[in-house]
Every structure is written in C-alpha cells, then in structure tokens.
Amino acid sequence: MKTLYLMRHGETLFNQLQLIQGWCDSPLTEQGRIQAQQAGAYFEEKGIHFNYLYSSTSERACETLELVSKRSDYKRLKGLKEFNFGRMEGQPEYLHPNRRRGQKGHGEFYLQYDGESDSQLEKRVKETIVKLVEEAEAGASILAVSHAGAIMSFYRQSDVPASFDLSLSNCSILKYEIREKQFILAELIDPVHQKQWFF
Length: 199
Description:
- The mean pLDDT is 94.
- 30% of the residues lie in helices and 21% in strands.
- The protein has one domain (2-14, 28-82, 119-198): 3-Layer(aba) Sandwich (Rossmann fold), CATH 3.40.50.
- Helix 2 (30-46) crosses helix 3 and helix 4 crosses helix 5 (148-155).
- By secondary structure, the protein is of the alpha/beta class.
C-alpha cells in the first residue's frame, strides 16, 4: 500500500482579499505561514514521515510545503497547479459564474477568457497524481501540496460518499490509501481547526 497526503496551501493575500487566484500567484499571509506550521506540527505529532514531496509550481504551494516539511528536496509539478481562470485572474471572486443547483465546477465557462475547462483541469491533475504515485516505491508515504480547485477536481473523480459535502479550508489534507492502483479516501484532516473525518 502507498499513502498520499494531498494538501491545500496556506492562506494567501488573494484569499484574504477574495480575488480569483488560479495560475497567477500571491504570497502567503502571516496567517498562511502559521497554518502551514500547524500542519507540519500535526505530521510531526503523528510520526508521519514522507518518502516523496511534491508541490505545484506556484510559490504559495512551494512555501507551504517548505514550512510543513522543513525540507527542500521536493519536485515542482505544473500538473498540480490550480484551475487556469485566464483573463479573469485577479478579479473579485463574486465574478465567478453562478452555478446551477448541484453543479460542482465551472464547466467550459473560462475557455472564453483564455482559461481552461473543468475536463482539462481534471485530466491534467489526475494524470499528474496517478504518475507520481506509480513512480513511488511500495509502502511509500507521499505529500503533495496543491490548490482547492485542483484537489476538488481529483476528489470528484474518486469513489467518495455522495452524502459528504467536502469543503477545503487552507492547509486541509485529503489522505488517500492506494491499493492495487485504487485511490481510497481514508481521511479529511483539518490541522488548523484540529478536526478529522474518517471514511
């Protein structure tokens, strides 16, 4: 069995200002750095050590990973980047399109702004995660720091309880156990608010 901890970055300036943040970047706030340190303390307290470390190429994810792991021997992967919102990047979050009842993503809305579609995001994120897990040795423990939209796109492709309404706060972690190439969601961990959900 292999274990994947898929984690969202800490709070950023754009999160605080409620601005659309995808491929563009903004720095972690002081609160975001504290959140990353709290996540690092959680892993340390549980005695969890990582054989492999990965991050989105975005600075906010890299800094989060460095604060969590206190290591620099990680790989940056473009495939772990956030949804590309194109020309809508940096705009107020209230400009996101209204979603129909039950709609989870943005469909093809952002293609018209030179961004990407839900299906494009889902494909690149899934391919990236599957590949990094396949390359890991048996029994490995993996930490990958990414973004809310990217993580949610992977989550929606997994076998998950239909009744569970997932919300990813900063530095939340999805723990997957991988057996015979099957990704099994085991836990949602919120180290900042000290909460855990088991599946």
